[in-house]
Design brief:
This protein has 214 residues and is of the alpha+beta class. 54% of the residues lie in helices and 10% in strands.
Length: 214
């Protein structure tokens, strides 16, 4: 079975089934597409892939403890393989309050980003999610161990992990998500347009349409 078919099947069976589980109550405010696009992908937002000259932004608001986000992770990697030279892939933090360690995980990723290792820690969180997810005790030491595994300067990591500015950055992402009507994770946008994908093909079609119109 081809990788794309496997990824697509997992996306349908797991993400679609779990999508409603992380929804929060609330109504999405109305926004113009240009305004929404500017909020969804700010100049300082983290980018997994940046395609020179591209005007197409694929944005994911995510929670590293969210099982649906973990299930979607291989699909996003597949999209990056297919579109990474034409599309900017943007990541925004959206820790869900009911996930005990979600905000801590985002702080760990942000602390790693301050040493140029955003993508490495982003991947680490998903690849180890079963080790620390759904725990009701702080996983600070485990996240510090991941920083050590990545060869980060631990003194700098500790300072950034505990800095109010790091938490502010995580919460600013979440506030942008709420302003855009994000009600749970994962939530995807293409050029400010919120997607409601039911299949992997819905994501590729959204990107193909955006590229055709760019």
């Amino acid at each position: 079975m081809k990788l794309s078919l496997i990824v697509g099947t997992v996306f349908v069976l797991v993400v679609a089934a779990m999508f409603a589980a992380t929804r929060l109550s609330g109504d999405a405010p109305e926004r113009g597409s240009a305004e929404a696009a500017a909020v969804a992908a700010r100049p300082d937002s983290h980018r997994l892939s940046a395609a020179p000259g591209s005007t197409v932004d694929f944005v994911e608001f995510l929670d590293f403890e969210c099982e649906a986000c973990g299930a979607a992770y291989p699909a996003i990697e597949q999209l990056r393989q297919q579109y990474g030279d034409r599309v900017n892939f943007v990541v925004r933090y959206f820790p869900v309050p009911s996930h005990f360690n979600a905000e801590r995980a985002a702080r760990a990723v942000e602390a790693a980003a301050q040493q140029g290792r955003f993508e490495a820690m982003y991947k680490m969180m998903y690849e180890t999610q079963r080790e620390w997810g759904e725990q009701q005790v702080p996983m600070d030491d485990r996240f510090r161990g991941y920083a050590q595994r990545l060869g980060l300067d631990l003194a700098r990591f500790d300072a950034a992990y505990n800095a109010p500015a790091t938490l502010d950055r995580v919460r600013a992402d979440r506030e942008d998500g709420l302003a855009l009507g994000v009600q749970g994770t994962p939530t995807f946008f293409v050029n400010g347009q919120k997607l409601e994908p039911q299949s992997f093909g819905d994501l590729t079609r959204a990107l193909d349409d955006a590229l055709a119109g760019s």
